Amino acid sequence: MTDMMDVKRKIREILLADSAIKEIVEDRIYIDWIERQFRHACITIFDPSEHGEPAMLGGTQDQYVGTVQVDVWSRRDPMERDRLAEAVKAALGRKANFQSMQASGFILGSPEVRTLDEIDVKPPIYRKSLRFTVLYWTESYE
Fold this sequence. Notes:
There is one protein chain. This protein has helices at about 5-15, 20-25, 80-95, 95-105; strands spanning about 30, 40-45, 55, 65-75, 105-110, 110-115, 125-135. The protein is α+β, with helices and mostly antiparallel strands. It has one domain: 2-Layer Sandwich (Alpha-Beta Plaits). Strands 1, 2, 3, 4, 5, 6 and 7 form a 7-stranded mixed sheet that branches. Strand 3 and strand 4 form a beta hairpin. The chain starts with a helix and ends in a 5-residue tail after the last strand.
């Protein structure tokens, strides 16, 4: 069965395997919102709604719609933040990765991208949020 935790783990696996992302964040890709000091640059993956809405129940599979948010963080500068956001978008949009996600029981829509910089803190935190609609499904009932 696929659930939101499976979706987040697969996204993390894909991002960890990408060389452009690894160059910037190494292995600092965290699942869920954790109240602690992150070493920047880093990526966080979480589910802001914390549940999936049924899209279609019954038949051979149950389908759900949810949201997964991938945030990129930098203390260096906005250019590093933007480079990292573009690398995340490219990795998750790559055909081979799309097929891998589909084989794992989900697909991502195009992201809504928002800049959420915190410039009032010292040093500033540069953050960009990529919010994806995700369609995920259970294994076949047959």
